Amino acid sequence: TTEIYTLSLHDALPIWSDVSIEQREKVWARDYLTDRVKLLPHRAPKISSTFILEHVAFMHNLSAEQILATRQKPRVTARHVAMYLAREITDESSTQIARAFRKRDHTTILYGTRRISDRIAIEPRFAQEVDLLRRLISESFAAYCAAFAQQRAS
């Protein structure tokens, strides 16, 4: 099979290389959505910090467990990016996000998001990578919602 992403030099954040949106959607559908459509709730889905964490882990070719359980720099950065995106994308409070990341205190989330915000401000390439990850998560959630609507219609 063809490798669909490569790792950047910036703490292993993914960079999709010459892959069409169509191909990305197929990857998401195959590796993520297929197993979860069966478990959809009866109400409309809402993006959560867990959804974001799983996607950040997937993009780093790791499990959510691996991102949560280690202090190795690339994984810590991935965890902080997931925290940052959860704060930016979801309606969840810092306390709710902390619970999803198995942290005792919401200040851990504030610290992680501040580190990513500071880094985005000074590293344009890192900012582009985080923005790309945000867009991919949004596309995946849109596909998830479409699968939900299709299941509800049938």
Overview in brief:
The chain is mainly alpha-helical and 154 residues long.
What does this structure look like?
With 154 residues, the chain is mainly alpha-helical. 68% of the residues lie in helices and 4% in strands. It contains 7 helices and 2 strands, in the order ββααααααα. It has helices at residues 21-37, 49-59, 64-69, 73-89, 94-100, 106-122, 124-153, and strands at residues 5-7, 14-16. The protein has a two-stranded antiparallel ribbon with strand order 1-2. A hairpin with a 6-residue loop joins strand 1 and strand 2. Residues 1-17 and 34-39 have low confidence and may be disordered.
Average of per-residue pLDDT values: 77
Estimate what percentage of residues fall within beta strands: under 5%
- The gyration radius over C-alpha positions equals 16 Å
Strand adjacency order, main sheet: 1-2
Low-confidence stretches: 1-17, 34-39
- Helix percentage range: 55-70%
Largest sheet: 2 strands, antiparallel
Query: How many strand elements?
Result: 2
State the order of secondary-structure elements, H for helix, E for strand. EEHHHHHHH
Morphology call: globular
SSE diagram, text form:
Elements: E1 5-7, E2 14-16, H1 21-37, H2 49-59, H3 64-69, H4 73-89, H5 94-100, H6 106-122, H7 124-153
Antiparallel strand pairs: 1-2
Helix pairs in contact: 1-7, 2-4, 4-6, 5-6, 6-7
